[in-house]
Design brief:
elongated, mainly alpha
C-alpha cells in the first residue's frame, strides 16, 4: 500500500494505491483468480459527504482520517493543607486506572 503524503493525505482527495511487487505478479498465473484482502476506512468519505451537504456556500471543508499520536503527560500535584498525601496519591492512582 502506498499512501499519499501530500496535503490531501487521509482525505477523499488522497491518491492512495496498491502496488504489486514483481514477485507477487510473477507468482500469479495469467487467467487465474487472485484474492487480495485489505481494510478500507469509509468514515472520512461518509463524513465528507455529510459536511459537503451542509456546508456554507464559499467553504470547502475537507475531513481527514485520524492519526494515532502519543503524548507524555506530566502532572504536578500540590497538596492542600489538611489532606493526607498518601490518601490523595491513592485516589489519583485509582482515578487514572479507571
Amino acid at each position: 500500500m502506498l499512501r499519499d503524503t501530500s496535503i490531501y493525505k487521509g482525505s477523499k482527495r488522497a491518491r492512495n494505491v496498491i502496488e504489486w511487487a514483481s514477485s507477487v505478479a510473477a507468482a500469479v498465473a495469467a487467467g487465474t483468480v487472485y484474492e487480495l484482502t485489505y481494510t478500507f476506512d469509509k468514515l472520512p468519505l461518509t463524513i465528507n459527504e455529510l459536511v459537503d451537504s451542509h456546508k456554507q456556500v464559499t467553504t470547502d471543508a475537507l475531513v481527514h482520517g485520524a492519526q494515532e499520536r502519543y503524548f507524555n503527560v506530566n502532572l504536578i500535584i500540590m497538596y492542600a493543607a489538611g489532606f493526607s498525601s498518601t490518601a490523595v496519591d491513592t485516589a489519583i492512582s485509582a482515578a487514572l486506572a479507571a
